[in-house]
Amino acid sequence: MNKRTLLENPISPSTLTRPIELYVFVDPLCGECWSIQPLLRKLQVEYERYFTLRIALRSSLPIMNSKCTQKVEDTLACEQTHSTFPSIAVKAAEFQGKRAGFRFLSKMLEYSFLKSRDVTSFSVLVEIAQKVNLDVDEFIRDFSSKNVLRSLQVDLYMSKEMEVEHAPTFVFFNENIEDEGLKVSGLYGYEVYEQILEELLDESIIPDLPPSLDDLFHRFDTLTTAEIADIYNLPERSAERELKKRLLQQHVERVTIEDITLWRKKQK
Predict the structure, then answer these.
(1) Residues 174, 145: one domain?
(2) Structural domain tally of the chain?
(3) Which domain holds residue 124?
(4) 69 and 187 part of one domain
């Protein structure tokens, strides 16, 4: 599981300032992968200067229906469902930028595990692309492109090389490319991942101060009360009180799905 064999493209200069590479393998249809979102977001807020995050998909290689490999402008050709569509859609979203891919995956998990929508449906995936402000026409074109399928193949190749058998799985690499990656399968407490970063860096790590709430919502679209409380190290009741103030000021909106409350920036 040597990193040198996994990177087909050179690392961009911006990633060289971060000594750790973190690969997180997810399955868009896995409930436990929904549960890692709060953990990953807090890691990004507090320690992103130490690592570069790469989301990789662990799912079966798609065998696209022949109708979906025809002219992609004919969106009705893909008015169907397939278990591999969510993985393809994440990759299509990533073609509009890394942040776009994160936003799409987050919203897709929300649709699947909170709203109980069928994210194997092409039409639902297009709806999600609209919700996260992607270029929908570009998303539909990329959805059936060979480049997206190649990108998914790279993820599958990496999961094989890193011997990833389950999702979610975290794989950490330090600056020494001769060292083996440290693989952690499953989901553990936040402190475990902090400890791993410290051990790989061989130094104490200092969390960054959280951004303003406006900046946080700009980055993560929707957040639960518990996530916000955890990021700002507040009692959940205090976080809810502050959010309700912002609700009255029309800075945020509240969305309740079943027994979970989500907050987002007020839509204009």
Answers:
(1) yes
(2) 2
(3) 3-11+18-201
(4) yes
Pairwise CA distance, residues 157 & 13, whole Å: 24
Task: State the pLDDT confidence band at 268, using cuts at 50, 70 and 90.
Answer: low
CB-count burial class (<10 Å; 0-12, 13-18, 19+) for 152: buried
Q: Does one domain contain both 56 and 132?
A: yes
- Rounded to an integer, what distance in angstroms lies between the CA atom of residue 7 and that of residue 100? 22
Please state the pTM of the whole predicted model: 0.82
For residue 110, count other CB atoms closer than 10 A to its CB: 22
Render pLDDT for 242-258 as a digit per residue (tens, 0 to 9).
Answer: 999 999 999 999 988 87
Q: Looking at the structure, tell me whether residues 7 and 70 fall in a common domain.
A: yes
- DSSP element (H, E) containing 90: helix 85-94
91 SS3 class = helix
First vs last C-alpha separation in the chain = 48
Which comes out higher in pLDDT, residue 74 or 184? 184
